[in-house]
Structure formats: C-alpha cells, structure tokens
Amino acid sequence: MGVPGKKECILVHVEVQGYRDIYFGKKMFTYFSRILNRYNKPVTCIAIFTDTHKRFRPSSYNYSFMGTENNFKYKTIRLLTNRKAN
Known about the structure:
Elements lengths: L10 E7 L6 H16 L3 E7 L10 E6 L2 E6 L1 E4 L8
Parallel strand pairs: 1-2, 2-5
Antiparallel strand pairs: 3-4
C-alpha cells in the first residue's frame, strides 16, 4: 500500500444496519464518496447487518446513466442469523 516503515492514515467507514433498506447500497456509496472527497485518504467500507432478513445483504451499488457507469462494492458481515435458541 505504501512505503515500508512509513506510517499512513487509512479511513474505515463502518455502517451498522438493523433493518431492511432498499437504498442501503446508495447510502454506502454516498458516505464513501463524501469521506474520500473530504479527507483524500484511502477508504475502506464495511457494512454490519444485525437484522434477521436472511436474503437482505446488499454488497454493492451500481449506477448507470447515458454512458456513465459506476460499480461500488463493499465488505459485508452478518452478526445475527435466524437460528432458533437451544
């Protein structure tokens, strides 16, 4: 990533999501672009899902309009599952 032995600053955007939001991917992209624009440092994004919707796990935001395209991907982690307690 950089020069060995040299200290570098990186930014980590962590978003904790506890409900289903169809605009979540766009929100992740918006926050990422604002952080990158403001600080001009390397940024990584992580979404932590705490809801019980097994199928809700967006991991990207895709934009396409008149030849302009963007595909933004981010890391996801699910903390809870729908397992029954013993």
